[in-house]
User: Fold this.
Amino acid sequence: MDDNQKMNKTEMLARANQAINEVAIEFTESLNERVRDLEKALHQNDLKKVVAIAYNLETEASTFGWPRVTRLSKWLRKIFSGDYDNKPKAEDVMKVLGALKLMASDPETPNDQRDEDLFRELYPMMSHVISDI
Assistant:
């Protein structure tokens, strides 16, 4: 590889990293609003929208390093698309939504210990309903 090719590769990687960082910031800034949209769709019983929002949150949270948000969103997506082992109780769904809201409440300063504790508390109930989360 000659010097021009090395420089082009370096520039292209820098631009790609910058684009990824910008999208990650956009995701973080919109996380709280998107969780509110999920809650609103749930209260309006718009299950197609709940599944679509949960899927988008699941995939984007996975991409940008939010593993517990990923798993909570996946659980909600599976519940509302009918893909579950045992039907969950409504109050369990609300607990998961509440945990998701809390995790997204201040995405600029995440509280990893609180979020991990919340997830550990919810996991037994979630895994009883869906084994693959």
Q: What stands out?
A: Residues 31-129 form one domain. DSSP finds five helices and no strands in the chain. Helices lie at 3-43, 47-63, 67-80, 90-104, 112-129.
